[in-house]
Each structure stands twice: as C-alpha cells, then as structure tokens.
Amino acid sequence: MSRFSVGRLFRAIPVIGARIGWTLQRRFLAIAYPDVRLGDRVMISWSSRVQATDGGVIHIGDGVSIGPYVQLLCKGGSVKIGARAFIGQGCVIVSNESIEIGPDALIAEYVTIRDQDHQFEGPAPISQSGMRTSPIRIDHNVWIGAKATITRGVSVGDNAVVGANAVVTRDVPANAVIGGVPARPIRLRQDVGSN
Length: 195
What we know:
Blueprint: H1 3-32, E1 36-38, E2 43-44, E3 49-53, E4 57-60, E5 65-66, E6 71-75, E7 78-81, E8 86-87, E9 92-95, E10 98-101, E11 106-107, E12 112-114, E13 116-118, E14 131-133, E15 136-138, E16 143-144, E17 149-150, E18 155-156, E19 161-162, E20 167-168, E21 176-179, E22 184-188
Parallel strand pairs: 1-4, 2-5, 3-6, 4-7, 5-8, 6-9, 7-10, 8-11, 9-12, 10-15, 11-16, 12-17, 15-18, 16-19, 17-20, 19-21
Antiparallel strand pairs: 13-14, 21-22
C-alpha cells in the first residue's frame, strides 16, 4: 500500500467513526426519548443532553448542529429548531410551553433560552410558588451572541443580531442589532436582502 493510500485511510477513520457514533446516538435517542424527532444530517455532541418529558416534544430540523454540553430540555412544552441552525457549546434551552428557533439561526456558546420563570409574589416560598410561561420565537437567520439570555415571551425577528451578554426582555424587530442589559436597539442592519 502506497504512502498516499495509507494517509487517505487514516484521514477517513474519524469520519467513519463519527458516522457510526451518530447512528448509535440516533438510535439511543429514538429509544430513550420517543418524543424527540430528528431530521437528516443532524449532529449532536455526545456530551449534550436532549430530553423531552411529561408530554413534551422536540423537533430538530435537517442539518442542525448541536455543540458539546448543550442542555435541550422540554418538560410538557415544545421545542422546534429549524433546518441548518447551530446551537453552540454550553447553551441551555428549557421549554415548559413553546420555543421555536428558525432556520439558519446561529446561537453562540453559553446562551440561555427559557420560556418560563418562577413566580415570586405572595407569601409562599419561591420554590413552591410555581412558574410563569410564555412562548419564545426566534426567526430566520438570527445571530445570538455568546452568553446572551432570552427571557420568556420574547420574539426575535428575521435577520436580527443579539449582542454578547445581552439580556433580551422585549421583542426584537427584524434586522435589528441589539445589546446591553436589558437589551436595547443599537442600529438596523442595512445590508440585508429579502429572504
């Protein structure tokens, strides 16, 4: 066997290993979580946790990539991730009602998206006061920067950019660039064509 052929063989081993690993993971998810529906060519890191319980449903579209140490949890709600979206390392996405992430969305590392928060009014301890929920919608071609937080009830419009470390508490219009705590408009993207 020539040196060239041996080199090609060694470069192919990680690709073959990844395909075998993905096949095994897909079968495991299908058995362990029948309410997780996976599209074609989905890549989920082995260290990530994808879990639907209590009647929750997760739909992951074609070509989605989910990085390492992501927590994607759906307890009685629904999560829908559109085609070709990217979820970066260490993100936490938790749904008790509804979270929808559009196609081609880019979510950087350590972003938190939760459609619920604790109720804290009244005499009962917060841990026993229940939760408030409102759906979250993140539209097509959105970029959410590292360590941003998206709170319940927020919609982020097409082509929007959310700056790193922003805390989004209000709706974001299409093509807007926002940042800060709480997040505020910075400018509109002028170079965005129609979808």
